[in-house]
Fold this sequence. Notes:
By secondary structure, the protein is of the alpha/beta class. Helix content is 42%, strand content 20%.
Amino acid sequence: MLSRRSQALAGAAAALAGVIALRAAGSLERMELAAYDAGLRSRPAAELDARVVVIDETEDDLVRFGHPLSDELLAQVIEGALALGAAAVGVDKFRDIPVPPGSERLERVLAGSKNVYWGYQFGGNGVRRIEPPRSLAATAQAGFVDVVVDPGGTARRSLLYLDDGGPPQASLPLKLALAWLAPKGISPQPDPANPELLRLGSATLPPLEPDDGGYAGVDAAGYQVLLDFRGAPESFATVTMGELLDGNVGPEQLRGRIVIIGSSAESLKDYFHTPYSAEAGDTITGADLQAHQASQLLRLALGESPRVRTLPKALELALIALCALAGTGAWLASRSGWLAVFVSSFLLFLIALWLGAARLAVWLPVVPLAGAFVLSAAISVGLRALREARERAQLMAIFSRHVAPEVARELWQRRDELGEGFASPRPLEATVLFADIHGYSTIAERLAPEALAPWLNGLIAPLAETIMAHRGVIRQYVGDAVMAVFGAPIPSTTREGREADARTALDCAREMCARFTALNEKRRAAGEPTAGLRIGIHSGPMVGCNIGSASRVEYAVVGDAVNIAARVQALSLPDGDEGERGRILISDATRALLPAGAALESLGSFALKGRKEPVEIYRAA
Length: 621
């Protein structure tokens, strides 16, 4: 059998492999994305970027101005925003086909201002392409507004660049941010340390990889970064088209700002789910989503906030492995209450770590971390239960034949005191009791074998019951004799404990004699043979251990003290034997552990076989 440590490590390795496999298969992706969203929502409230404003086409505007808005009205809105000092204007409305009247005016407005940008749909993967206005098709004033969404329809990523085999094309939010940053001398550059990465002002923006964070093979085409949605779920500063066209918007509301023209009209269905949708219970407009992207680019370029980072794969793997290793601590939680405290404490630690990382804009993979820990802990608990079941069966197989059931249960509860495997030799001081059926050989000559066995068992069984009732351990049956130990296998480590063992052994011997006398009386009345009982008791040092092979193991106590107890029992006294009343002889070592007033008769010193020094013998009344 593997050691506990080896089993625990094997369980941790299995948990680690299981979590890695589930993650690679995408089985944890939804939970990880939900945890990422919760991490974003847990951040302290922040103000929305005042440098970005939305001009909103409301449902009321649709009723008032009609749908689609004419080129004339759009030209007026753009001119109005520029007249109020907007630094850059982005139009998040498709206009691949002119909508007269006013088409010529709109073209003049677009040609007259290089800080006006129009959105188009890049398309691909089954989505059709929608071109920008014809006058901007070959210019740098067109930017795509395609949005990538995760399973479930939630937008978490920002597309900066896309290409279809030609030059990379930039998104509308990137165009707007670059127009706002241009006067500060900030433009896209290759990162000095890695030219394949984009450097924008103070920030290097590595593109999202298919397996970054909690993603499992996500489509990372183009140049994507994670959105931080700072300030959500609040909406960006907004003015309506009607307010702007009616002259109710002042220069202070738009001057120096990025202005995005979009629509919140429900009938146009330009809405997206975000990580905040679960909390706010609603969606944001496409214009607001473009605004979040532009705002994040401004903040990153100016060093005002960190980018959302994912951990290197090697670090993620190391953390998951550490959590799986931590789960092996469940081996030590032997009680359900301790296990609950251990598991809940570690999970609370992980949650605190995850929340702290979220505040630092770090995507900590809390789901696989917690999963590896819980799975490892569950495996550890299961392996420990199986091991304990085997150990319990082993212990019960060794002791259940020798002790009362309640003693066997206590031995299991105190198994740690026996040592792992219950097999290590263990020094102890205990009291040994030998009981022998006197006159058995004579009776065996008189009775047929088929009658002798039940006759003998009728005497031995009550003796064994008496020993078990006094919590003694029956070491062995040898023909017509039985040996019991008091103070094993869990030793008595104090003088008081050893004295209690000696008293218990003497009390047991006296009850054995009383029961034996009653049995003789019944057998005499029935005309059956009767016998005598000799009991010898000695206390001293010995060694408790398991003896046998892998297929059969028995608990044994060995040592000179065991031999002395047997010799005391077998003594032949000058005045003969007590016969059917039974006799109890104890050694001076046991006498020293009994109370001073115990009813004992000194019989003098006797030379015992195999002993150089004589032993003082006492007879118990």
